[in-house]
Design brief:
Blueprint: H1 5-30, H2 61-80, H3 82-90, H4 94-100, H5 140-145, H6 151-159, H7 161-164, H8 178-190
Helix pairs in contact: 2-6, 4-8, 6-8
């Protein structure tokens, strides 16, 4: 009565479904996603014990201990090498430091009269008292550290914040390359009404 028309329509539908399935399976086989070597971003958290390793998300205790020891070693080397920061600052590039500061812009403002974010405004930070900035509540550890932000202290802090000030709220793991730190410190030096003289 209907002839072959319903079979043609059913055959066309089945052929279309088969073609779509083959394209999906073939596409997935050709486009195998690569696993990221490091996180594309570091999620922000307000917890003190957040691990800020730049590698794979969770890690075992051995990996955490290794990162802490590396951070402490970097902070110690930076403190002991205070004269080194003078040499690095002499060759530093404030423009490169400004580019590096973009990593900090999610948590800090750099403008004069800017507003505090998760972290304090960094205008006039060089030479400022540690743990004291109007309208910002610092961790007790940083307040207890005391003293002024010297070039050597900034270098040590930026190399490994949690190693230099255990208990700090700062989540950033630090800049491992000494010249990167010097570039950033020179940029911070430029963000001041009356910056202390360079060493």
């Amino acid at each position: 009565m209907f002839g072959y028309e319903p079979y043609k329509i059913l055959g066309a539908l089945l052929f279309t479904l088969l073609l779509l399935t083959m394209l999906r399976v073939g596409g997935n086989a050709m486009l195998i996603p690569e696993k990221l070597v490091e996180n594309a971003y570091v999620p922000l958290s307000v917890t003190e014990d957040y691990s800020t390793d730049e590698g794979e998300g969770e890690e075992d205790d051995e990996g955490t201990a290794q990162n802490e020891s590396e951070g402490k070693a970097a902070a110690k080397a930076s403190r002991e090498g205070a004269p080194q920061i003078a040499v690095l600052l002499a060759a530093a590039d404030a423009g490169a430091g400004k580019k590096l500061a973009k990593k900090c812009a999610a948590c800090h403002s750099f403008e004069q009269g800017g507003k505090n974010k998760i972290g304090p405004v960094l205008w006039n930070i060089v030479g400022a008292e540690k743990g004291k900035h109007e309208g910002f509540t610092y961790s007790e550890a940083l307040v207890e550290k005391g003293g002024a932000w010297t070039y050597g202290d900034l270098d040590a802090f930026l190399s490994a914040p949690k190693a230099y000030v255990p208990g700090t709220k700062m989540l950033f793991p630090g800049f491992k390359k000494p010249q990167d730190r010097a570039n950033l410190i020179l940029y911070l030096h430029s963000l001041s009404d009356k910056p202390p003289p360079l060493p």
